[in-house]
From TrEMBL:
GO molecular function: calcium ion binding
Gene3D superfamilies in the cross-refs: EF-hand
Keyword Nucleotide-binding: no
Domain EF-hand: 19-54, 69-105
PROSITE patterns: EF_HAND_1, EF_HAND_2
Pfam family membership, one: EF-hand_7
Organism phylogeny: Eukaryota, Viridiplantae, Streptophyta, Embryophyta, Tracheophyta
Keyword field: Calcium
Domain of life assignment: Eukaryota
PANTHER family (UniProt xref): CALCIUM-BINDING EF-HAND FAMILY PROTEIN-RELATED, OS09G0482800 PROTEIN
Protein species of origin: Apostasia shenzhenica
UniProt protein name: EF-hand domain-containing protein
Length: 125
């Protein structure tokens, strides 16, 4: 079974402190483009734009989403990570905490058997 379809495997990964921390540190370092030990909004927004999450996940490429809308969406995502409310940067601890919370929400989502998974997942996030 694929890790992406197995909530228990995701949960096990999150609770494997060594493996999870190594993964988070690697991902954090790749996002921290200037190497200052912090992720700025610009660094995170650049990554979010390169992922084309909306286009790939929700097939909205042709809906005419404005640049302003996408910037606000990226600000909202950044705010989730910016747990101290500085609105300027995300440190490794904030990044790790939010990634853990998101992955555990996904694990719970994948472990549920009901057809209303999507609405419950959105409520958790």
């Amino acid at each position: 079974m694929s890790l992406l379809n197995d909530g228990a495997a995701i949960s096990d990964f999150v609770y494997d402190d060594r493996a999870f921390r190594a993964s988070i540190e690697g991902r954090f370092a790749s996002l921290d483009a200037d190497g200052d030990g912090l992720i700025s909004f610009a660094e995170m927004a650049e990554e979010l734009m390169s992922l084309k999450v909306l286009q790939a996940s929700f097939d909205v490429a042709g809906t005419g989403l404005s640049h302003r809308f996408l910037v606000e969406l990226h600000r909202d995502i950044f705010a989730r990570f910016d747990r101290d409310g500085s609105r300027a940067t995300v440190d490794l601890e904030e990044f790790e905490d939010e990634m853990k919370e998101m992955l555990m929400a996904v694990a719970g989502f994948l472990s549920e058997g009901s057809e209303n998974k999507w609405s419950r997942l959105c409520a958790k996030l």
